[in-house]
Amino acid sequence: MTMKHSISSLSFVMALATVFIVRPELGSGIVSGKYFWFYLSMGVIAVVSLVDSLTRRQAMRIKRIDGLILLYGVCTLSVSYFLHSSEAVTKHILLILIILLYFYFRMFLSASKSNGYWPVLFFLVTGLAEALWGLRQLYGLEHSQHALFQLTGSFFNPGPYACYLAVVLPAAFGYLLRDRNCTQVRFKLRYWPLYLRWGIALLTCAGVILVLPAAMSRSSWLAAIGGCGFVAFFHWKQKGFRGLGKIAGYGRWILSGVLVLCILGGIGMYRMKKDSADGRALTWKIALQTAVHHPLGVGIGYFSGSYGHEQADRFAAGKGTEQEQHVAGNPEYGFNEYLQIAVEQGVIPFLLFLGIMGYSIYAGIRQRRIAATASLSALLIAAITSYPFSVLPFLIVMAFLLAWIHSGKCDTGKRSFPPVLSSIFIFIVAGCLYNRYPTYQAYKQWGRSKALYHTGAYGSGAKAYAPLYPLLADQLDFLFEYAQCLSKSEQYAESNAVLEKAVKIRCDPMLYNVMGKNCQALKRYAEAEQCFLKAANIVPSRIYPWYLLANLYVEMGETEKARETARIVLTKEPKVQSTAVREMREKMKEIVQDSKIQKHTNYEQRN
After folding, report:
1. Would you say 505 and 302 are in contact if contact means Cβ atoms under 8 Å apart?
2. pLDDT for the residue 587
3. What is the largest CA-CA distance in the chain?
4. Which of 245, 343, 425, 447 is deepest in the core (most CB within 10 A)?
5. CATH number (domain holding residue 455)
């Protein structure tokens, strides 16, 4: 391997290593740490690819899929930025860089058949390393990334962690079957790359199988089964289905048994987390309604906020059933990436995305890129019931898998001009990195300033957060903390100005609760009432918004409304019983018995 080839391989390995990065010193370091490592790796890849394209005689031939992916990116960014004035700068830049990463991978993998060996091997290693990371967490040897979950790997919760393992598993299984012939013949040193890849594939499969059940993620189980089933089918097909002839006569019985197992398995997975499954079904229903009402999309990053308005309107109109009110939540993601793409990006980008993925599966089967196609299939299966496209490592893997499937023999021709592309791309990457560098400094300052927020030094926190606001205005956690600092330091109007941006990004009832309390402090009672009602209708099972509304009516002197709202707090069944719920109900009993209202009336008369 030449020095130039080694440097090129390492630059792409660096991008795939993004999954491991956690930066606790940054604000939201589990997520933002991956962002900035990826930005750095893209800078390295851009420079290395430009040098490589200028010194290499052969070039990559542009294919139809390249045009489709480029068209998808242009349409998505145009819809989000020009039609909706989306301020989700982070997501826009990530989309641009992921599309460029696909082209960079295509150039590298198309340059030589051997170029794919190390990126593929490292892709398998990421699955093995994550599996070992999870096993250490299960045995208490490594801390989790989330206080509520023991098993997260390098992710923020078990869901995306398990889905990542499920995406790597089919590729490992594919190479386990493909390279096993090397273990059945006499050892030869020149075949060491095959021995190494087979060994890594074996260890990865074993590690993933050990840890995946513990994650309790139904989406990952379905993705793993679908991807590995894809590999097994085409492996047996290439063998002419030898070994299956003896059981062919029992085909009906076998098929019936498989169907029964699938039905029982589906029922079991549903009953395992019934409320969760019902909640996702409700999410899909409302997301579909949102997509219908916004055929041009709502803008990248604004799914949750738009979803919240749709759900609140539905329950405010009395359309939801009791079970729907019980399971309704405030999802950050759609738990179906296809619906989320339709909601955020609109009909045209959605159709382009489906076309890209469908054509890629077809091309992968036709070119016999079974391992890559199986992993892509697993990713697309996981996207039906989870949110992998909303997590950066999955986007990197998707760019890699698409390039792996569509990489082909280099040639020169009218549509072959990577030196030109590389020159254009490096300017685009440089512009993105130039935009992100101040944001990196802002994340570092946010990480240092969090102590002020958590220790209750809200006045100092508001001053520390203020200069960061223009750079972190698309980060919900930052917006909420900044708004709370402003509210607690009695800067109510300024707090609401920040929260107005936050509610576009997320449908969290707590945002509306804080807005309502700010309006109440400013004596803008009508606006406060609307905020509390909005919070109550987004997630009807929550008691706190009704509690705040009852207190608001007391302050307004609306006796009957206060009693009626207090009765809702006393009779509504919360999802989780807690000390806070009991305390709120005790205070509501005072309102129903008129004692609190009478005290407030006497106070108003004295003043």
Report:
1. yes
2. 85
3. 99
4. 343
5. 1.25.40.10
Closest residue by Cα to residue 425 from 8, 109, 111, 102: 102
**What is the span of the domain harbouring residue 549?**
440-606
36 close to 23: Cβ distance less than 8 angstroms:
yes
In the listed set 323, 345, 367, which residue is the last one of a domain according to the structure? Answer: 345
- What are the residues whose beta carbons fall under 8 Å from the beta carbon of 300, sequence distance 6 or more? 76, 80, 86, 88, 91, 92, 95, 344, 345
Are residue 310 and residue 374 in the same domain, yes or no?
no
Same domain, 341 and 479: no
Which residues in the chain land under pLDDT 70? 1-5, 56-60, 84-87, 183-185, 239-276, 408-418, 594-607
pLDDT tens digit sequence for 101-153: 999 999 888 887 788 889 999 999 999 999 999 999 998 888 888 878 889 99
Integer Cα distance of 473 and 459 in angstroms:
20
Residue 440 near residue 468, CB atoms below 8 Å: no
The DSSP H or E segment spanning 550 is: helix 544-556
Torsion angle of the four alpha carbons 238, 239, 244, 246, in this order, in degrees rounded to the nearest 10? 150
| CA angle (176 as vertex; 171, 182 as ends), nearest 5 | 135
Tell me the pLDDT tens digit for each residue of 463-477: 999 999 999 988 889
336 in the same domain as 305: yes
Rounded Cα distance between 490 and 496, Å, is 11
The per-residue pLDDT for 148 is: 82
Give the Cα separation of 383 and 223 in Å (integer): 9
Q: Which pLDDT value is given to residue 373?
A: 95
Q: Are residues 489 and 570 in the same domain?
A: yes
C-alpha dihedral (19, 20, 26, 32), degrees to nearest 10: 0
Give me 383's structure tokens: 């996207």
**Domain check: are 175 and 46 in the same one?**
yes
Q: What are phi and psi of 325, to 5 degrees?
A: -65, -35
* Domain identity same for 94 and 49: yes
Tell me, yes or no, whether 469 and 588 share the same domain. Answer: yes
Q: Provide the sign of the torsion angle of the four alpha carbons 189, 193, 196, 198, taken in this order.
A: negative
Domain boundary, last residue among 406, 432, 458: 432
Question: Tokens for 121?
Answer: 């091997």
Measure the CA–CA gap between 73 and 87, rounded to whole angstroms: 17
Q: How many domains does the chain have?
A: 3
Provide the token pair at 243: 């070994």
Q: For residues 143 and 33, state if they share a domain.
A: yes
* Nearest-5° Cα angle at 125, 230 to 365: 25
